[in-house]
Amino acid sequence: MNVFLSNIFHSEDRLELHYYMEEMKGLVIFTDGSKMDGRVGCAFVVFYNETELDYRKFRLNESSTVFMAEVIAIQQAVQYVRANDLGQVNTISGPRSALMALSAVEEARDIINNIKEYKGKITLTWIRAHMGNLGNERADQLVKEARMISDETISFVLSRNQIKMKEIKL
């Protein structure tokens, strides 16, 4: 899966990055992730036109960063698209940092590269948070609910940077 910023890369790439400015048309997935009071969650919600079809929400371990929550939300959305053979999908995401990592030509993080390997047609689109968009607000609500789930639904090992930061704090 290739990611491109529309003014830099060629249109034959399969994963495009845009800014969201239009109404929900066709199959659209909104993603979000956040951390508050030591609790981390992420979610995605699937719409067809303006009708909600499905959603998933995940609680992550407290050592997770907001960035990882945002990336995992996108990863889970891509897995959903793949598992359900959805074809062309517009994935809308508030977190610009995750989208920028996906648009990088070279990336060291495996999770980012795994997302980029998907061979279907997904357009990744950035949307400004808290601007009243139905899909984005619903994803935000699901993330708040995900943070309240009692047990972690997704966990992973600390990154090298997180380990270094913990050692510095000790």
UniProtKB/TrEMBL annotation:
Pfam families given in the database record: RNase_H
Organism: Araneus ventricosus
Domain RNase H type-1: 23-148
Alphabetical list of InterPro entries matching this protein: RNaseH-like_sf, RNaseH_domain, RNaseH_sf
Gene3D superfamilies assigned: Ribonuclease H-like superfamily/Ribonuclease H
Lineage: Eukaryota, Metazoa, Ecdysozoa, Arthropoda, Chelicerata
Name under which the protein is recorded: RNase H type-1 domain-containing protein
GO MF annotations, alphabetized: nucleic acid binding; RNA-DNA hybrid ribonuclease activity
